[in-house]
Write a structure and sequence with these properties.
By secondary structure, this protein is α+β, with helices and mostly antiparallel strands. The chain is built from 5 helices and 7 strands; from the N terminus they run βαααβββαβαββ. Helix 1 packs antiparallel against helix 3. It is globular. It starts with 10 loop residues before the first strand and ends with a strand.
Amino acid sequence: MSPSADPAPAVALLDVTEPVLEQLLELALRDADADEVTPPLGTAAGWNTDRISWFREFHRAAAAGLDGPARQKSWAISCDGQLAGSIRLMRSEAGPALETGIWLGRSFRGRGVGREALRLVKSLAASAGAEVLVAETTAGNVGALALLKAAGAELVTGADSDTATVPVKGRIQLN
């Protein structure tokens, strides 16, 4: 390793307990745009009470795991002992596939944290019997597209458009 190379971050996935949930919410409020973390909710832009309530309920529902009522599991991403974001797996209607989604606080992007978290969740998906891992982003999300490409995803772009909001689906073969 050259002296100028940054060491790889120590990344782990943590169960989202109530204390972890509150720390994760604090990170999201401080270091992420609401549109990157939640669906559009409420009348006020950005972080509002509807989005904060959704965030808490989403992670509480996902605590039951892939076989629970929400059919998904979320984890907090820890990087070198600090919470960095969240990643999830969700059962898909498309056979032996699981869907994933990730968000990272701005201060953790571009450091290899997402790549390592996705590697860990790919392993968990394969252990759960999935043959394929799918993800969806938009054409304008350069970071997510690079992450999916690095993970070996086959990318399929939605309808032709000149906007950055065109959906892009990624498909990662696990076997």
